[in-house]
Amino acid sequence: MSLSTLPTECSSSILYFLDKASLYKCLFVNRHYCRVTIPVIWKDPFIKKFSTTISFSLINTLLLEEEDIFSLIPCTTRLYTNRTLFEYGKFIQKVNHNHLAKHVKTFLESNNMRNIDYAVQKVVDIIYHMIIRKSSTLQEFEVDVAQENFPKIPSFTNYGFKYLRSLTIVDLVTDDEKLQNIAEFLNMVSKYCNYIVNLELCINSFDNVFLKQYLDIIKLQPLKKITIYLECIEKVPNLGLEFRKETLKVLVLDNVDFQHFDLSLISKLKCLEHLEFLYCEGFDHCKDLFKDKLYLKEFKLWRCDSENLVEVIINCFCSESLLKLSLSDVTPRAVKAVKETCPNISFLCIQFQSTKFTDSIIPFICKFSSVRVLNIEINFRFDTSSLVRKLADYLIFVECLYLDFNVDLPGFIYFINNCKANLKKWIITLDNSTSSKDYLLYVNKFQKAHNSLKAFGIKKFGYNLMNEEIEIVDILKSQGIDLVAPGELDYLFH
């Protein structure tokens, strides 16, 4: 079936999987391809690439949609005045306010514009006016108030950001003028928006002037995901989570002190599936708090001040419904709690803080028959050969293995010769000075023995294949192994 015979919605969904370079090629196939590709390209046009050529083309194209543009901006501005083929503004679904402003500034600088800050604000206002007037599809908005030369967010009424679904705010400033502008914007969000499902806040403190506006958004919007990052560890209020018990599916809290936070409120979030505590503390009072059982699918407890409470936290927040678990404070008691409380996990990521428990924990987790993806990190430097050998001796059920620590060659050879698991995806980490050639040769040996590997990756900064390594890679590809590029490694295990 050709793309032209598919409904437009299906064609667009297929094109979303292509990168920008491939999308631009689609524009020149035929008229149909061009028509379905343009909305995909212009969904998120304000990408973080600020070359003069890119910025000029982007801003010039948008400004040409304004009929009386020369009366709106100074006549010294250079524009290409060819009529546009599409109304590009109506396709825009995502705006990063700071990226937009940076593109405008680069565009104006290419015109040798004077009084640049005033001109940037003027053009930014024009573009917002055009997007809001022509589009009802604006769904995502991001703003970093902390950046220098921050242009004001324009005011809008009930037709402006009405259908906004995602709001991200980085608020790490104390400048009065910026604070007033963002306060006005947040008030308008609370008043006119009704569909926000994703809220991300990166803030100095919950004692700032926006606390009421943030709580209003949490209370009034049908949020499915809340992410809160505090610049430094701080006690927080209860955040109004009780208002989101019927909608919230994802909750991520970073740098939060739960000393005066009622953790039992989390247990009342009936729809919660994904919960993360990152660099948090104050879990001492979580014992015996929970009457209601959570049915999480994903749980992450990472670098928190909870070493002696990990098993208690797992018993409180986890159950047989859990499928994905990430722990940085791994102890035998914690692993035992995982085995007893969440027997169905298929993804396990653990980080060792010391060598104290590695020999006892590795054999134990290798017995988890449900685990198919295993990610092991190490937060210190030591001889990892013993850990790799333990994995080789006990690993059976795992299909995807990510060793996020330096793997020495002797340990790697032992693993190749003794591993019983039929790995499908495998990533290792090497020092920059370590040659990959011998490792690739032994991967070839592993494939000959198991014939199971589909993807293999090497995590190494500045990694470029040498000619002799390329020859081995070709051999691996002939055996059905895809060598994963460094930029793709993080996506392989998520």
Automatic annotation (TrEMBL):
Top-rank taxon, per record: Eukaryota
Record InterPro entries: F-box-like_dom_sf (IPR036047), LRR_dom_sf (IPR032675)
Name the UniProt record assigns to this protein: F-box domain-containing protein
Organism: Rhizophagus irregularis
